[in-house]
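Hey, I was hoping to borrow your eyes for a little while. A protein chain has come my way and I'm curious about its shape. Take your time with it, there's no hurry, and the full record follows here:
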Amino acid sequence: MQQLTNVSDVEVLIQHLRMPDWEARYRAAEALGRAKNKAGVEPLITALEDEDEYVREGAAWALGEIKDRRGVLRLLEALSDPDKYVRRAAAAALGKIRDRRSVDPLVRSLSDEDESMRKAVEEALTAIGPAAVDALLGSVGHEDWNVRWTVIRVLGAIKDIRCVDALIAGLKDENKYVREACAVGLGAIKDDRAVEALASVLKDENKYVREEAASALGEIGSKKATRALIETLRDPDWGVRWGAANALGDIRDASAVPALINAFKDEVRYVREGAASAVERIGSSALKPLIEALHHQDRHVRRWAAWALGRLKDARAIKPLLLALSDEDGGVQFAAEVALTELEE
């Protein structure tokens, strides 16, 4: 059988597709797929009706490798094959061929009982791209939340502005996974129309939805989200606070600097670090507030202020940092020392 996979003569491989041994037929199908020779298309289409599920799976895979549209109709039929691996291979092949005729049947296959099949369909529709948008938009209200969730994920991955209104509406879905996926998708598309809706989702009952909404606002980068994100720095969940700090760093609105410096005293180190990094990204407008923060009563604020000043690399911070070397807190002293070293580089 190993010798068979190395045979380059396509006609010989086609003959092996008719051999009585299922493994020989399977290896022949695989080899035809690797050869990518269009002469193998019709025999492989016939092999999709083979009595053995391994052969049918191999034939579907091979047709995807060859990417010939002649195989589309039979591959669409294979989406209903009794074997889940055959269905999965057919979906993957259709994603590689990217024929518009595949869209509606693939969308219907999002209801398949097998999770791996649904994942293959998701990837196929994502690969087909904008041509699949209209059909997907028709399923955003599907009764099964799992289908809605997958549809939203695909729409977000395609990043087509036609999806924005549907994703905004989905932020109010009863299912938390759907709402979360809508936030992720809107962040990927980066359309300003979503800012207000995402800002309202920062109050969602689910912390993961809030966190993704914060991240999405950072990806969009609109200063219209600054106030809502500043308020989110007080969220009860540290992951959401961390996400809000990072988003403010992405937006780079100087008005957020005082709130971010205040977040240097957050009880969770990751949030403190995220806030300091955000201030660094905002840049030179943060210089004066950071120097003032070297005198804050909270040691964490002083530590991260020193760290951020070093990252700004502004010579005006040298004198205040030299004074910070005498701070009563060893952590502040160390941060000031490191910052001065960075300023010398």
